[in-house]
Amino acid sequence: MDSTGYFHYMAALVFVLGAMLALAWVLKRFVSGDASFRPLMRRGAKRRLRVEESLALDARRRVLLVRRDDVLHLVLIGGGNDILLETLPADGSAPSVSGDGDFARFLHDETVSPSAMTEKPGTAP
Fold first, then answer.
1. Phi-psi region of 69 (alpha: psi -120 to 50; beta: other; left: phi over 0)
2. Distance CA 107, CA 116 (A)
3. Across residues 30-36, what is the average pLDDT?
4. Separation of alpha carbons 53 and 50, rounded Å
5. Is the pLDDT of residue 98 over 60?
6. Whether the predicted model's global pTM rises above the 0.85 cut
7. 110 phi/psi in degrees, rounded to 5
8. Which residues touch 60 (CB under 8 Å, ≥6 apart)?
9. How far apart are CA 123 and CA 125, in angstroms?
């Protein structure tokens, strides 16, 4: 290779690296950390919706604490359907219960008792 070949090789390398850095900057600028596209908002605008916490219950189900404005929503997702478990004011005052029961009753209904695990199918308790 002569010197012009090396020059072309280096110029192509610089161009490709520059293109990769530009793409990384664009992705960082317009894609949030959870890899979903956030809307193009004017600079300094307050985001109204975000996931405060997330907890994996098992391989399919997850509990999310979602903040919308000044309200927290406890949501169970996965496992065939999504359920709003509870709505909480962000200031810590008394919760308002959604659906047909409170969160503790939901957990009690969803929990399998140890005696039910030892029973044989088809036998009455």
1. left
2. 16
3. 56
4. 9
5. no
6. no
7. -85, -20
8. 78, 79
9. 7
